[in-house]
Amino acid sequence: MRIDRSSTRIAFLGLGKMGLPMASRLVAAGWTVAGFDPAPAAADAFAAAGGTVASSAREAAAGAGVVVTMLPDGRAVRAALTGPDGVADQLAPGAVAIDMSSSAPVGTRELAQELAGAGIVLLDAPVSGGVKRARDGTLAIMVGGDITAAAAVRPLLEALGASIFETGPVGSGHAMKALNNYVSAAGLTAACEALRIGARFGLDPALMTDILNVSTGRNNSTEVKLKPFVIPKTYASGFSMALMAKDLRTADDLARHEGIPAPLSRAVAALWQQALDDLGAEADHTAIDAFLATRPTED
Ligand code: NAD
Questions:
Q1: Is 250 near ligand 1, meaning CB less than 6 Å away?
Q2: Given ligand 1 and candidates 18, 128, 142, 188, which is best to mutate, with the most ligand atoms within 8 Å of its CB?
Q3: Could you tell me the pTM of the whole model?
Q4: Which one of 15, 149, 157, 286 has the fewest beta carbons within 10 angstroms of its own beta carbon?
Q5: Closest CA to 156 of 169, 139, 174, 168
Q6: Burial (CB count <10 Å: 0-12, 13-18, 19+), residue 41
Q7: CA-CA distance, 54 to 34, in Å (whole number)?
């Protein structure tokens, strides 16, 4: 398969918080991209960024050599590719589907088999780094699947990420991503709890954050989430609680699937599901802090 800027057309499905800046970067890097999102605001934003918007996913995919999906979850990806209005039969022969969403890895393996029957190679290439790094093109990208296809799409991925890892067979990128988000959510939960306890004792939360960030309690949340989103209670990181709760379920399902005891993963997944039930799908994931404030003192 030959994939290059001058001849390959890319269909980009999902122009949400992450998909919009990612698709826009591909356009800026000189790739020919047709984007689709059923949400008019998302499609309009891509058009405003200079992107070409298709009127349907199938139109975006007609003759495309690559389809990138940046959708809420693996179920949406499966529907977009192989569902009744799916795009698989629109793609060019030998096309590569790159699922950059955070999908469940076991489902990804199954989808890859289904697509292989139609002559399409599926790579999973989920990302980490959030909206800011999506804009900057400095995402971490975890690529699972066929190494020849992974090498072929690398120039495209290089427009999106600063660290690109090949993680192994198809689904391994998605497994890595879910486990990353489990570690990230556990770190955020711990940091928010620590700040609440410290504040009640009389410690200053901003000073606590400075100390954590040069001490052994430092993690990504202490570095980039506490001061902008948690301490001022803006809760506006650009990553929803619904998506984080989904990733935590994925990580916990994976632990069960592999038969690995993971009591902390189970506890964190349950806590975040409860937070989602209480705060609703629109809440930002950093609002876990607000949820913790509502917990009884003794559980
Ligand atoms: P989002 O909800 O902002 O965007 C998803 C978009 O997909 C929406 O605009 C929706 O209208 C669109 N969509 C749904 N079905 C579609 C279809 N069939 N065809 C085309 N578009 C469709 O979500 P997001 O924050 O951009 O996250 C997307 C994926 O990336 C998720 O899997 C998420 O877990 C993952 N992720 C998000 C972040 C982040 O910081 N937001 C970081 C890393 C990974």
A1: no
A2: 18
A3: 0.96
A4: 157
A5: 139
A6: exposed
A7: 6
Catalytic residue among 17, 177, 225, 227: 177
Residues 6+ apart with CB under 8 A from 236: 229, 284, 286
Backbone angles phi and psi of 9, in degrees to 5: -100, 140
Strands 96-99 and 161-168: unpaired
Distance (Å) from CA 101 to ligand 1 centroid:
7
Question: Which ligand 1 atom is nearest residue 102's CA?
Answer: 32
Q: Tell me whether residue 227 is one of the annotated catalytic residues.
A: no
Per-block mean pLDDT, blocks of 10 residues, the chain (299 long): 92 98 98 98 97 98 98 98 97 98 98 97 97 97 98 98 98 98 98 98 98 98 98 97 98 98 98 98 97 88
